[in-house]
Structures are given as C-alpha cells and as structure tokens.
Design goal:
With about 400 residues, the chain is mostly helical. It has 2 domains: about 240 residues, MetI-like fold (Orthogonal Bundle); about 70 residues. The chain is built from 19 helices and 2 strands. The radius of gyration is 30 Å and the shape is elongated. The chain starts with a helix and ends in a 7-residue tail after the last helix.
Length: about 400
C-alpha cells in the first residue's frame, strides 16, 4: 500500500470520527439536573402540588368562594362543615340600586326628595357588596372578583370547612390566607436572595480585611435574637401615628413585615455564597475576565454569581418553607399578619382560641394547619430533590 493510500484512509477515518463527534450533543448542567429531578417521584409530586397550590392562590378571587371577611355571628357562628348552598345576594342589591336610580330619574319628585333618593343611590354604590365582602380589594383583585361575579353570579361553594366564631367561611379564609403566606415566603426569600448573594459574593471576591470586616458583621448579626427585634419593630409599627405615616406613602404594615423577614434570612445565604465564590475566584475563567479588563463588580455579578446559582437555588427551596414557618409562628403569637389580612398562621391562632375542654371545634384548626403542613412538606421534598439533582457526586446514582 502506497503512502498516499495510507494517508487517504487515515483522513477518511479521522473524518468519520469528526462526523460522529458532531452528532454527539453535550448535556448542560441544568438539562442533566432536570432529567435526574424527573426521576425523583417525591420531588416531582411535590413540584406539581406546589404549582397547583400557587395557581389556586393566584386565582383565588376568580373562584366561587364566599366572602372571607363578611361576619354573620347571629346565624353562622362556629358551624361545622356544611353542604348547604350559599348566595351572596349581590344581584338583588344591584337590581334594587338600579330601581332606585330609575325611580329618581323618572318619577315627578320634588327637588329635595329627588336629592335624597340620589344620595341614597350614591351611598349604595359606594358601599357596594364587593367593598363589604372583600374589604376594598386592590385593582387586580377587584377586576378578578368582578369577573367571578360575571361567571358565577351569586353562587358560592358551601362552607365545606365550616365557619369561625364570627360566622366567616373557613374555606374562603384558607384560600385567601394562602395568598399572604405564600407571598411572604416568596417575597421575603427574594429579599434575602438580593442581600445575601450580593453581600456574600462581594465579601468572598474582595477577601482580605474587607472580607474579615464583612463576615464579623454577619457574626454580630447572628448573635442578635431577631425574634425580639421583629416583635419590637412590629409593635412600633402598630402605633396609630406610625401606621398613618405609612399609609400616606402607600406602604402597609404587611409590606414592612415581608421586607423585615427577608432582611433577617440573608445571613446564611451570604455565608454560603461567600464560600462558593472563594473557591471560584482563582479559576481560569476569572483570570481571563481580568485580562480583558472586566471591573471587579463585573467579575462578581457577571461571572461569579451565575456560577453559584446552583447552590443558591437549592438554598432558596429550603429558605421558603423556613420563612413561611417563621411568618406562621409570628402570626400565631399575634405579632405577624394583622386583621383584616389573613394568613395560615393567623387562622391557626384563631382555631386555638376556640378550643375548649367542653367542646372542640376541630375544623377551625384542622384545615388551615393541613394547608400549611402540605405546603411545607412539598417545599422540603422539592428542596431535597433539587439538591440531589444538582449534586455532581450523585450523578450516576
């Protein structure tokens, strides 16, 4: 065989190897993690359960539920789970308002009588059952409630979870309470993510005396009993003068509560991110970023932070249930979410208040506690599954 034939065969072999290599597609970390997560049945069941819970919380105003705040102590105090239908009576209210308005415009009343009738019509419009039943909902919630009334009318799901000591429907309160509890978990965790990741990444990258100073501040914050600080701040914000000032700026007490919890849970996040950044800051891709002239902040937030998001996501899935538990604990003590807002912790507190030796109103605590427990279990199972899926040591297990 000549040398040219040998070279030709070698080129054909190398060409076949190259073509085969082009056909092989690499698998990214996230794709591989998703494949492994799908094999974890408990984590996937938890994920779908959480999706259902979050969707139900978001679209609660669209559901044909009873009013979560309307009180009827005389007729509905502490009723056990019911199967009887319930009507809001909004349609009759609107018809009566329309009748009065038509009567004021068509009948030959005197000026004083017509003015009195129009005043009554204006009062009925301002005190519409939507404002009475849902306590002046926000713009988006009000639109969803109006759509719910267009679709379902006055029909409401029966009191399947019973009623409380003020005659309010527990089922609707559990659904509306999910909005506050989940919002607290996600918003406070997002705040802790912003503070903790930024603080830890900057501390780990700069190193030296800056890192020592920043971490000693974290140690000092760790030594503070934050539950007492939260109780003190919430007691301060409960004052009428402070509440009036916050209302002028459109800030509610519940918003401050969310931000306050988020400002507590960033400490561990900062330590975790700092350790990861220290292990990555001397890698070759960071040296390459320095070579092309990237600034310190660009290296931190464009190169280091994206490479630690795996561990951050795992920690987030474990932080959310911790925040929800903390909110429930404070609300249970009466220092968290305040009426007329509703949360699962507040509902459990209301249930405990009516438990007596003589009679147990089990539905007051069973359903809200079950909703809280199912959500926390799902978040913890999902967090364990995400941790295992992102752990390269468990890749082939």
């Amino acid at each position: 065989m000549s040398i040219s034939d040998h070279k030709q065969k070698e080129l054909e072999r190398l060409s076949a190897i190259l073509q085969e290599a082009h056909q092989v597609q690499g698998v990214s970390l996230w794709t591989d993690a998703w494949k492994r997560l799908k094999r974890n049945k408990a984590a996937m069941f938890s994920l779908w359960s959480l999706i259902v819970i979050v969707l139900l919380a978001i679209f609660t105003p669209l559901l044909p539920l009873q009013s979560p705040t309307y009180q009827d102590v005389k007729n509905r105090e502490l009723l056990p789970p019911q199967m009887e239908s319930y009507s809001l009576g909004i349609k009759e209210y609107d018809q009566e308002t329309e009748r009065l308005q038509t009567e004021a415009q068509t009948h030959a009343y005197g000026s004083s009588e017509r003015e009195a009738l129009l005043t009554e019509v204006d009062a009925r419009v301002k005190k519409h059952p939507i404002q009475l039943y849902w306590l002046e909902p926000g713009f988006i919630s009000k639109g969803m409630i109006s759509l719910r009334l267009m679709i379902f009318g006055d029909f409401c799901i029966p009191s399947l979870f019973g009623t409380d000591k003020l005659g309010r429907d527990v089922l609707s309160r559990v659904f509306w309470g999910s909005r506050v509890s989940l919002a607290c978990g996600f918003i406070a965790t997002f705040v802790s993510l912003l503070i903790g990741v930024s603080y830890g990444a900057i501390s780990g990258y700069l190193g030296g005396w800056v890192d020592n100073l920043m971490m000693r501040l974290v140690d000092v914050f760790y030594s503070i009993p934050f539950i007492f600080i939260v109780i003190f701040i919430m007691s301060f914000l409960s004052g009428p003068d402070v509440r009036e000032v916050l209302n002028e700026y459109g800030v509610g007490q519940i918003h401050v509560f969310f931000l306050l919890i988020g400002a507590i849970y960033w400490l561990t996040m900062a330590r975790v991110v700092r350790g990861q950044v220290i292990s990555l800051k001397n890698e070759q891709f960071i040296e390459a970023a320095r070579t092309i002239g990237a600034t310190r902040m660009q290296i931190v937030f464009r190169h280091l932070v994206p490479n630690v998001m795996g561990i951050v996501i795992v920690y987030l899935t474990l932080t959310i249930p911790a925040v929800i538990r903390f909110e429930a604990f404070l609300s249970f003590l009466g220092m968290g979410v305040q009426a007329p807002d509703i949360s699962w912790g507040l509902l459990v507190n209301e249930g405990v208040q009516v438990i007596t030796i003589i009679k147990s109103y089990w539905w007051m605590i069973a359903f809200s506690g079950m909703a809280l427990a199912v959500t926390l279990f799902a978040l913890n199972f999902l967090g364990d599954g995400v941790r295992d899926a992102l752990d390269p040591k468990l890749k082939n297990k």
